[in-house]
Amino acid sequence: MSEATAELEATRLKDWRFSIDGESIAWAIFDREGESANSLGRRPIEELNAIIERVEAETRAKTVRGLVIMSGKERGFIVGADIREFEAFQSEQDVINALKPVNALLDRIEKLPIPVVAAIHGVCVGGGLELILACHYRIATRDDSTRIGFPEVKLGIFPGFNGTARSIKQAGPMAAMQAMLTGGMIRATVAKAQGFIDQLVGSAGELHWAARKAVLQNRRSQSAGLAKMLLTKWPARGFLAGKMRQETAKKVREDHYPAPFRLIDLFEKEGGDLDAMKKAETKAFAPLMVSETSRNLRRVFRLTELLKAQAPKGFKWRPSRVHVIGAGTMGADIAGVCVASGMEVTLQDISPEQLEKGIKAQSKLFARKFKTRATRDAAKARLIADPEGKGIPRADVIIEAIVERLDIKQKLFADLETKIKSGAVLATNTSSLKLEDISAPMKDPGRLIGLHFFSPVPQMPLVEVVRGAQTRDEEVKKGATFVTAIDKFPLITKDVPGFMVNKVLTPYMFAAMKRLEEGEDKEKIDEAVRAFGMPMGPIELADNVGLDICAHVAEILGHPSEGSRLARLVASGRLGKKTGEGFYVWKDGKPVKSDAKFSTAELDKLGCELVEPMIAEAQKTLDEGVVESADLVDAGMIFGTGFAPFRGGPLHYKKTHPGAKATTARAAAE
After folding, report:
1. 401: domain range?
2. CATH of the domain at 361
3. Most buried pick, 125, 256, 570, 636, via CB within 10 A?
4. Interaxial angle between packed helices 600-623 and 522-532, expressed in degrees from 0 to 180 and rounded to the nearest 10
């Protein structure tokens, strides 16, 4: 190491380690101080800039022959830009000023005459992926933990470090645009096939030597071939952009989520000249970054961190075996999700046919989760039919998902209490019964918690961890720890009717049904709520849930349905999607709807009115202390019901939209 380099590391670097080895290879190791993961904030960027200045000087002096960029963290490369710093941007010019030095830095890396090799293990997304695309050669570990991706669209933006142009240059427009438009995580093997990665190695231990060899052999990545790049030429580019708009519009509305549509516009206009695309990228990116949509989606990201924090740090208890009682759709799906997270699960049901059906239904989940036959077979082996409940004494977590009858649940838990091992979690998935009532016959009611999953279990990220009046804190901590272990978000809530999510959702559902009773068109109701930003309208949602379940929950929560259209449908056996008819007629799993059109103005007005009861009940729920904070109320509604993420949650929407306050006050009074 030269004297100047030693001084650079000793006096200036906090987030990077820099050295030059005996073979004249420079090593830049990213290990952000005080952080569990590497993110590209202002200081790491400034320090990397200083490193590149040193490498440029050493290159001119012919004292280095290459540069390797690696992570000093065990579990990840770079998780992207530091979104905590995004809040400082107040104007488009602030964004442009912040982007200029970063893009200049990546250009300098790209132009270095010596080979620059990125050695990647773990997650490499967002700004991290943009950084490695500026390198000349990319090596990654093959294991499942190594993923790349552009998640920016989930934050209401798209890549802003010239990643739009570099990704197209490297992988071609099809793979690059798909990665940017979907925000999905890409496995290392797929990333190599697409052209994002040049070489795979078996383990993190091999990265150092593979990177050294790549430098010594002066390896350079091959850009996307002519066949791929023909799609950047006109008229193919215009046709491709049109198809992208059509597919994107099927998933999101442009007025709610403009970022993917602006990215397509950028590609359509500038994709034939990637240098021009780099310049245009910043101008298109800046207004998105300071938009209300992006601010709210960044808020949603912070809410995910808040939910994760519901599980205590440093808690030593770790679950590995689960026993689920009840192999209906909910119970079987809970079992499947646990298996997909690596746990061994015994599934119990009094019906052999239901047990077989429930286990078989998990094949679809395993096929999505596991990409090789060996891993799928291993998952299937971890899901064990257990009609006699032999797995109960060995289980770390026992979850009941049987019929919603108090007497049956009471008898079951009184019996389970005598069979489970010390320290095991005892949980009910009830959606309407109080834990205090269920645990009444138990000798130790303090060990019962609620683990309230939402349907469909594999897709819904939230699980309410319900604290009964007598539940011990230790059991709640275990419940939250278990939820995070199966890759879901825990929300700790008091034991009140409907817990938090259903308590807030029910007044909204039944206010919509009241509108229907008064003659409002069901399709207009549903479209108005979708226009507001909900993933599904309340009438269609009721059909999806099951009208019998809706009526039962309504009764528990004080919204009786006697004499209503809902009651009549239930009495006639028309229960919604599961019977083929409810409020809607269902064909091929979808509701049959007319081609009726409604004006934007009337939909906007009606949509705001329809969500008023939800916002009012959300405030009431906070005031009653059902959960700890307004942020947790918002998080629960976003991840438990799909409340419009771009609006930041019902209470945040009320706070930031003055017009909502007056209407919500009216709804509360009514």
Report:
1. 316-495
2. 3.40.50.720
3. 636
4. 70
Identify the three-state secondary structure at position 81: strand
Domain containing residue 262: CATH number: 3.90.226.10
202 and 139 in a single domain? The answer is yes
The burial class, CB within 10 Å (0-12 / 13-18 / 19+), for 566 is: buried
Whether the full predicted model's pTM is greater than 0.85, yes or no, is yes
Q: How many domains does the chain have?
A: 3
CATH number of the domain where residue 628 is located:
1.10.1040.50
Same domain, 194 and 343: no
Q: Is residue 296 part of a domain?
A: no
Q: What is the mean pLDDT of residues 36-46?
A: 96
Q: What is the pLDDT of residues 13-33, one digit of tens each?
A: 999 999 999 999 999 999 999
C-alpha span between 115 and 111 (Å, rounded):
10
CB 270, CB 282: distance < 8 Å: no
Q: How many whole angstroms separate alpha carbon 398 and alpha carbon 457?
A: 17
Taking Cα atoms as reference points, which of 501, 550, 523, 528 lies closest to residue 610?
528
Question: Is residue 3 a part of any domain in this protein?
Answer: no
Same domain, 223 and 266: yes
In a domain, 664, yes or no: no
Last residue of a domain, one of 495, 527, 557: 495
Give the tokens for residue 277.
């695309």
C-alpha atoms less than 13 angstroms from C-alpha of 549 in its C-beta half-sphere = 17
Given a cut of 80, whether residue 659 has pLDDT beyond it is no
**Is residue 309 included in any domain, yes or no?**
no
Q: What is the pLDDT of residues 577-631, one digit of tens each?
A: 999 999 999 999 899 999 889 999 999 999 999 999 999 999 999 999 999 999 9
Instruction: Give Cβ neighbours of residue 475 (< 8 Å, ≥ 6 apart).
Output: 425, 426, 446, 447, 448, 449
Which of 331, 343, 346, 341 lies closest to 370 in space, CA to CA? 341
Catalytically active residues, by annotation: 431, 452, 464, 502
Given 495, 511, 537, the domain boundary residue is: 495
Q: Exposure of 509 by Cβ count < 10 A (0-12 exposed, 13-18 middle, 19+ buried)? A: buried
Q: How far apart are CA 111 and CA 459, in angstroms?
A: 44
* Tally of CB atoms within 10 A around 460: 18
pLDDT of the residue at 549: 85
Query: Based on the domain organization, do 151 and 271 belong to the same domain?
Result: yes
CB 44 within 8 A of CB 87: no
